[in-house]
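ARCHIVE CARD
CATEGORY: sequence design from structure
SOURCE FIELD: tokenized fold
FIELD CONTENT:
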């Protein structure tokens, strides 16, 4: 076994990062990997990794012996990830296949290209009643930053916490409750988008899930790998789809928090709030 590593050059690493604007390429992450150092005004911190899709050395995850050294250390064999996802893809290479990582890379570069075309949104003002504000606080409280982080990082493997799924479905279960309907059209549209996203998630999730006392039984890839090795890719794709749908729920839910963060009191009035420069 050779100990030679076919590492990327610094130029290749910079290009991998630049092509995704320093954002982790994992579809459920979207984390920025670069920022200012807290200890110096002329330094930066990076938690990004130029990871090999096919391992840089023999015996590594997804190593391809037919690949030339030049190709192995080329930009085509690299993907930019945060340190957590860089570690994750290497400890579970049977799930994070070459094809899956190549798709991550293509999709991440598409997202980066789309961001380049974003146009500034003009400032506008929206009046929100106290009743709608109370409903807004209700949704922001349920789908808190901590819950959204838990949803974003959930792997959706053999066991999925009951608390996660039960909290996720609250808006859907109460979709016909008139007390939770917004008068403000934009807020009501957000609520309907959240309900639709949850419905899509649950329609997919319930196909392979079963509840018990503490968690939902879900797709056990180790068991499938042992009994039905030919079906591993099929079920791995189902897990990926579950994560994607969960992220769509999170994206819909976080709009309530973003909306709320732009609120300020309307001078001289006690029954309304004013939303300033609302960009969503």
């Amino acid at each position: 076994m050779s100990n030679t590593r076919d590492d990327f050059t610094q130029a290749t690493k910079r290009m991998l990062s630049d092509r995704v604007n320093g954002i982790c390429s994992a579809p459920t992450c979207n984390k920025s990997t670069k920022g200012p150092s807290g200890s110096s005004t002329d330094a930066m911190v990076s938690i990004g990794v130029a990871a090999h899709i096919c391992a840089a050395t023999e015996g590594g995850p997804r190593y391809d012996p037919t690949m030339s050294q030049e190709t192995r250390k080329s930009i085509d064999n690299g993907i930019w990830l945060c340190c957590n996802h860089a570690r994750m893809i290497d400890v579970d290479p049977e799930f994070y296949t070459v094809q899956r990582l190549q798709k991550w890379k293509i999709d991440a570069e598409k997202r980066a290209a789309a961001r380049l075309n974003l146009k500034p949104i003009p400032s506008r003002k929206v009046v929100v009643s106290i009743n709608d504000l109370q409903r807004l606080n209700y949704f922001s409280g349920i789908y808190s930053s901590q819950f959204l982080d838990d949803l974003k990082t959930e792997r959706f493997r053999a066991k999925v916490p009951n608390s996660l799924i039960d909290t996720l479905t609250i808006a859907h279960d109460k979709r016909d409750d008139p007390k939770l309907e917004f008068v403000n059209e934009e807020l009501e549209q957000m609520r309907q988008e959240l309900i639709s996203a949850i419905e899509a998630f649950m329609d997919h999730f319930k196909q392979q899930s079963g509840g018990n006392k503490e968690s939902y039984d879900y797709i056990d890839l180790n068991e499938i790998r042992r009994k039905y090795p030919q079906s591993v890719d099929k079920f791995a794709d189902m897990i990926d789809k579950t994560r994607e749908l969960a992220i769509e729920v999170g994206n819909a839910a976080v709009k309530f928090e973003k909306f709320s963060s732009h609120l300020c009191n309307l001078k001289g009035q006690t029954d309304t709030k004013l939303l300033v420069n609302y960009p969503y």
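CARD ANNOTATION: The chain has a mean pLDDT of 87. The chain is about 45% helix and 15% strand.
SHELF: design records, drawer C
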